[in-house]
């Protein structure tokens, strides 16, 4: 007699490298909390392999979807059937949902950042300006959020021309300028978001060298970097009495939103945070 067990739900991370990802721990904890028979695996997928890997998912009924990380967030756009408004405007997909043989691209980094800023009490009220450090994919997600909130935004990047390109690609509606750090009216700034990779794995590196945080006494600092848990940027901000948070909240929220898009289950945030920190957060 043969038995046909319902297929286990499966989700993946496609990235290169993939070995040190924290996503499997979060999504496995979420499957367990939700009581769902599911498995999440991080797979090393090279750029050459991405089209074939995505195509292979289409007709596998067990597959809920995938997360995409470096270097696939931008190149995947052309390989998917539909894109959410956020994914299209940001130009990056971090979550793919498989439905009926079609692949739908989403960006949960942007709403993940928004939720993390809200949790940290760092969302500016009114029209208080924000500084985004960086002009890569993560900066584009941050810019999208600031555009949605209609907050004046200064983009400061090591390569200034990339900051100009970023702002230009979102169109003229949003009040935004590309500036050097020395040109920013720091005394007005309410929020600084680090979306560079400066400080990632390097406790002595900062995207704002020789910066005096007393120049922006009203600002909070949100660092998307979460390794180390306290970056130099955060350390220096805190030493000047400013609130500062690392990127673990954003990481947990983007995973929560991806899991919800796949399963329809909104697993509580502490399940994801607990998987990151080894216990309830
Ligand atoms: N917490 C989360 O959930 C989350 C989510 C997404 C991303 N992130 C983090 O965000 C960071 C950026 O990711 P991404 O995908 O946007 O990377 P990316 O596209 O490669 O962009 C990297 C950015 O960092 C800048 N940069 C790199 N090294 C720098 C340095 N030493 N000093 C100043 N600027 C430097 C680059 O400037 P140039 O243009 O001059 O090269 C560029 O603007 C990474 O650390 C990533 O882990 C976190």
UniProtKB/TrEMBL annotation:
Residues 13-96 form the Shikimate dehydrogenase substrate binding N-terminal domain. Its EC number is 1.1.1.25. NADP(+) binds at residues 85, 134-138, 224, 247. Keywords: Amino-acid biosynthesis, Aromatic amino acid biosynthesis, NADP, Oxidoreductase. It catalyses: shikimate + NADP(+) = 3-dehydroshikimate + NADPH + H(+). It is an enzyme of class 1 (oxidoreductase). One of its GO terms (molecular function) is shikimate 3-dehydrogenase (NADP+) activity. Pathway: Metabolic intermediate biosynthesis; chorismate biosynthesis; chorismate from D-erythrose 4-phosphate and phosphoenolpyruvate: step 4/7. InterPro entries: Aminoacid_DH-like_N_sf, NAD(P)-bd_dom_sf, SDH_C, Shikimate_DH, Shikimate_DH-bd_N, Shikimate_DH_fam. SUPFAM superfamilies: Aminoacid dehydrogenase-like, N-terminal domain, NAD(P)-binding Rossmann-fold domains. NCBIfam families: aroE. Homodimer. This is Shikimate dehydrogenase (NADP(+)). It comes from Deinococcus antarcticus. The lineage of its organism: Bacteria, Thermotogati, Deinococcota, Deinococci, Deinococcales. The gene is aroE.
């Amino acid at each position: 007699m043969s038995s046909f067990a319902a297929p286990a739900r499966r989700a993946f991370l496609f990235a290169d490298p993939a070995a040190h990802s924290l996503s499997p721990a979060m999504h496995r904890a979420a499957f367990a909390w939700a009581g769902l028979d599911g498995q999440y695996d991080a797979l090393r997928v090279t750029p050459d392999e991405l089209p074939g890997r995505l195509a292979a998912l289409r007709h596998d009924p067990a597959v809920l979807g995938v997360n995409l990380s470096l270097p696939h967030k931008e190149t995947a756009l052309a390989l998917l059937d539909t894109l959410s408004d956020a994914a299209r405007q940001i130009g990056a997909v971090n979550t793919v949902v498989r439905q009926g043989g079609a692949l739908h691209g989403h960006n949960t980094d942007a709403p993940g950042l928004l939720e993390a800023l809200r949790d940290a009490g760092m969302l500016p009220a009114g029209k208080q300006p924000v500084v985004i450090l960086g002009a890569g994919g993560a900066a584009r997600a941050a810019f999208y959020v600031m555009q949605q909130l209609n907050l004046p935004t200064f983009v400061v990047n090591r390569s200034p021309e990339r900051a100009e390109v970023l702002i230009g690609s979102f169109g003229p509606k949003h009040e935004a300028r590309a500036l050097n750090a020395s040109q920013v009216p720091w005394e007005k700034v309410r929020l600084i978001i680090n979306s560079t990779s400066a400080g990632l794995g390097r406790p002595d590196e900062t995207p704002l060298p020789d910066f005096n945080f007393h120049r922006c006494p009203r600002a909070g600092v949100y660092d998307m970097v979460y390794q180390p848990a306290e970056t130099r940027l955060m350390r220096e901000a805190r030493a000047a009495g400013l609130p500062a948070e690392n990127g673990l909240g954003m990481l947990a929220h983007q995973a929560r939103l991806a899991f919800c898009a796949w399963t329809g289950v909104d697993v509580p945030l502490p399940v994801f945070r607990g998987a990151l920190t080894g216990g309830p957060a």
